[in-house]
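Usage

Read records sequentially. Each one opens with the input sequence:
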Amino acid sequence: MPFEEKRTWILGIAAVVSYAVYLVVVLVRARDTALAEVAYVAPMLWAIGGSVVVSIAGAVVVAIVSRDDRSDQRDREIDREGARIGNAFVTLAAVGALALAMTGREAFWIANAIYLGFTVAAVVSTTAKIIAYRRGFWPW
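and closes with the structure output:
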């Protein structure tokens, strides 16, 4: 398995796990209060920061273990196409957050729409990259 594919797995797993932990923390806090009134900022920042730290640390460990693997043209093309696919979901999240802001929703819903969009984009992007590594590029 190439270094870039290993790194992709790490990024995808970190995104899913950090979002799941965030959801559990917020939902546990929501037992005693309305969901939109939950203190969500600190858990969200910890989840995002934790995901970044785990992704970087995992990539460093994989780079040390597999020193001979180098990125080639195929890796760069897979990364570019996966990022392009994921960016569509970031755009959808931005449009959703914009709609929430325009309709006067609480900051909780706007922030969570954006965070969900980033997580979905990461999952879709990494899934597309892994499929490209395993099955090759699509025929279009």
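Summary fields computed downstream for this record:
- The chain has a mean pLDDT of 90.
- Residues 3-135 form one domain.
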